[in-house]
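Reminder: ligand-aware prediction takes two inputs, not one.
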Amino acid sequence: MDIHSQKILILDFGSQYTQLIARRVREARVYCEIHPYNKGLDFIKEFNPKGIILSGGPSSVYDKGAPKIDKKIFGLNIPILGICYGMQLTAKLLGGRVERSKKREYGGAELYVDNAGDLFRGLGMGALQVWMSHGDRVEELPPGFKAIARSDNSALCAMRDGKGKIYGVQFHPEVVHTPKGDRIIKNFLFEICGCSPSWTMRSFIDTAIEDIRSKAGHDRVVCGISGGVDSAVAALLVHKAIGNNLTCIFVDNGVLRKGEADKVEETLKRSFHMNIRRVNASARFLKKLKGVEDPERKRKIIGNEFIRVFQDEARKIKSVKFLAQGTLYPDVIESVSFKGPSATIKSHHNVGGLLKTMKLKLIEPLRELFKDEVRLLGRELGMPEEIIDRQPFPGPGLAIRIIGEVTAKRCDILREADSIVLEEIKKAGLYRKMWQSFAVLLPIKTVGVMGDERTYENTVALRAVDSVDGMTADWVRLPYDVMERISKRVINEVRGVNRVVYDISSKPPSTIEWE
Ligand code: XMP
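Here is what comes back for the chain with xanthosine-5'-monophosphate:
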C-alpha cells in the first residue's frame, strides 16, 4: 500500500504551533506535511490531501499584507479545519465578520460543546479545558455555518458548515494545554476526512527502503556518521536497503568524548555489519585549532576541516554517486518556510560544496520525520538504546566546551572529567531524564591543597539542563550526593583539576553550552 495515499496538508500561516499540529496528526498515524499558506491551488490539487488544516498565525485578517488563501480552496470538496487565524480567515473569506481586537485572549478557557457529533465526538460531558491565544475573533458566522461550541467569553468558539466539511476552532487543539485536543484532531482525521491510522514506522521503513533502492540502483552511497542518533539511523536505513554499497565515514576529529568513536564503530559493525571507515584526523583538526580562542572560529574550522577530511576519504571510494544525510523534517520545514529560516541551530555540516565538487546527489531518508519518530524508527530497525537515547552532543564537540585554546592536553583533561560526569549521572539513573549533562573546562587556574602540597590547577564546571528542544533550558536540581560524587571523583582522578563548580544558569539569558 502507498502509505502516502492518505495525506493531510497543513497550510502554515506562521504560528509557533504549526509543527505541533503536524506532531498530533502523525501521532494519530496519519501522514501530513506542512507547506506555506501561499502554495496555490494547483499545488493543493496535485498534493491531493484527504483534509486540510489551516494553522494559526500572528497576523490579523485586517492587517495590510495579511496572509490569505484563494477562496476556491473551500470549493474543492476537501474537509478543512481552520485553527485560530485559520478559522478567522475562513470566516472572513466566506462572508462572516471578524472583529478586530486590541486585547489578546491568552490562556486556559472552558469550552461548552453544543454539538457533540463529529469534531467533538467522544469527549465526555461537561466543560472542556482549551487553550486560547488570539487577538481577533469571529463575531458573525458565514452563511450556512453553525456555532458548535462556546466559552464564557465568546458564543462562537467553534463552527461547522452545513455539509460538515468546513470547520473552525478558535482555540488550539494542538497544544498540551488543551488536554483533549488530540481527540479533536483525531475526530477531524477519522470522522471528517475519513482517514485511517495507517502511517506506522513499519510501513515507513518498507516505503523508504524501496525509495532508496530505486534511487541508488547499484551505485555506491557514502554517509558521514557522527555518533548521534540521526546519522546512525539514516545510515542504518540505507544499509538495510543497499547493504555494502553503503560506506559510512566516521571522522574522529580529536574533540569527541572518551571512547565514543570506538563505541559507535563497534556497535554498528557488531550489530549490523556495516561498512565503516574510521578516519583518525585528530592531529589535522588540532593543528588547525592551535591558538584559536574564538568559539565561532572554532566552529568554522571544525566544519570546514570535516568537509575536507570527508572528501579525501570519499574520493577513495570508487564510483560513489550519492551522499546520504540524516536531515530531519524540522530542517526541511525551516528551509521552505515563508518566514525564512529562524534562529534554530543547524547541526548539519554544510555539504553544498561537497555535492558540487564530487558531483554527488543527496539521499535524505529521514527528511519526513520528526526527532521522536527517528528514535521510533531506530528501535524498529533494532538500533541499540545506547545510540538511540543519547543526549545531544554538538558537532564541534569538546572544542566549544574547552574555553580558550584547544590543545591535546586540555582535550584529555576534559574527556576524563566528562566521562566521570556521564558515568555518575548514568549510575544515578538520571541520564535519560535530562536534556544534557556535561563538563566544561575553564581557562582559569585556582589554588588548592592536595596532601601536603599546594596546587595550582584547572577548574571544571558541571552543567546539567532540562529542555524540550534546546531553545530554552533550566538547570537541573541535581541531588547533592550526585554532585558530591562527581566533584570528588573528578578532583581525585583527573590530573590537572583541583576544583569543580556547578552552573546554575538557565537559558535564556545564558546558553546551554558555554561557547
Ligand atoms: P546553546 O548553547 O545555543 O545550545 O544553548 C542549544 C543546543 O544546541 C547545541 N549546540 C550545537 N550543536 N553545533 C551543534 O551541532 C553547534 O555548533 C552547537 N552549538 C550548540 C547544544 O549542545 C544544545 O543542545
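Residues 220 and 319 are 6 Å apart (CA to CA). Residues 201-388 form a domain with the Rossmann fold fold (CATH 3.40.50.620). We will return to this case in the review session.
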